[in-house]
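Researcher: Here's my situation. A collaborator sent me these components and asked whether they could plausibly form a single complex. I don't have experimental data yet, so a predicted model of the whole assembly would be a useful starting point for our discussion.
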Amino acid sequence: MTELKNDRLLRALARQPVDVTPVWMMRQAGRYLPEYRATRERAGDFMGLCGNPDLACEVTLQPLERYPLDGAILFSDILTIPDAMGLGLYFEPGEGPKFRKPVRTEADINALDVVDPDADLPYVLDAVKTIRRELGGRVPLIGFSGSPWTLATYMIEGGSSRDFRIAKQMMYDRPELMHQLLDTLAQSVIGYLNGQIRAGAQVIQIFDTWGGALSHAAYEEFSLRYLQQIVSGLIREHEGRQVPVILFTKGGGQWLERMADTGADALGLDWTTDIGQARRRVGDRVALQGNMDPTILYARPDRIRAEVADILASYGTGPGHVFNLGHGITPEVDPEHAGAFIRAVHELSAQYHESSKHREG
Ligand code: 1CP
């Protein structure tokens, strides 16, 4: 296997010394980039893009051509699992994801099988292999999945939702049925992520985008429990290296200690948590990833730079920080502003890693 030319991301996730803080962005391959829009046009639509390993590889690499990012993230979507379960994922132009056959009844849930990634999602595993080959060891490749709870919300609601009315009704009225669905999803996620690791993913992130919509007790029972099951079931070493796992619960700032208990290597933070306080709470148990408000990217580049400086100062000196946005970059952001953000992280973070430079000689 090729040597990694830039292993800052892996080092930071393992809380080892780095020269500067590594940075990548959620949704770094996406609609804010004109070259992405052009490739999606060629693919026909979003699912055509996800389903074509060569085009998925092309859009994965696009942000790396523009910016000195420290990681690549597989171009795919969390909703490939429910699609593989037969729910019929589609995208109406200008609208979010939708399912032709949402899951609403006991019979619907009984009919779901655990996904076999080799048989049901070969295009994702092929994309991972193609991207690893084309990366040539430039930076590590991040594979990902949605959390069972987050996937369940889309499957039950049939798409995006404001209040998760139908999903929560099932959770409160038929908890045993919800657990059956979440367990099927957790088993599917474990197989899918292990498939991505065997195909070449070097870091794993689990997106629990809607965990923050749950009550304290419901988060433990319906989201965290399954995050734990997944972390316990993942391959943790491959190609002679650790494969770090990052858990990101949007709105999960109050549960960081419990998330660290799962044995994950790193926690993703949204922008509502102070990263310095988070660091004091979790100590050296996990690395932290985050956490700039993505809408700051609409502000002037000097304002973006000041925000980066504040977050770096809040985290403080020493390793264990991966810079990221607190959620995905949005389609209307000016690509120049994204560039200013990434440059600022590298330029302003060196001072927080001085001692590591001396130690490395
Ligand atoms: O091209 C387009 O118009 C479609 C927009 C788009 C993109 C670029 C969607 C539809 N998905 C993606 C790619 C994607 N999705 C990636 C890879 C790109 C990268 O990160 O560089 C990843 C990691 C995701 C993950 C994803 N999909 C999440 C979790 C992260 C998050 O945003 O919280 C979620 C919730 C989804 C569902 C989804 N897919 C697409 C959209 C617009 C949504 C969100 C819908 C909603 O808000 O409910």
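Model: Some features of this prediction you could bring to your collaborator: The chain has one domain: 8-360. The mean pLDDT is 96.
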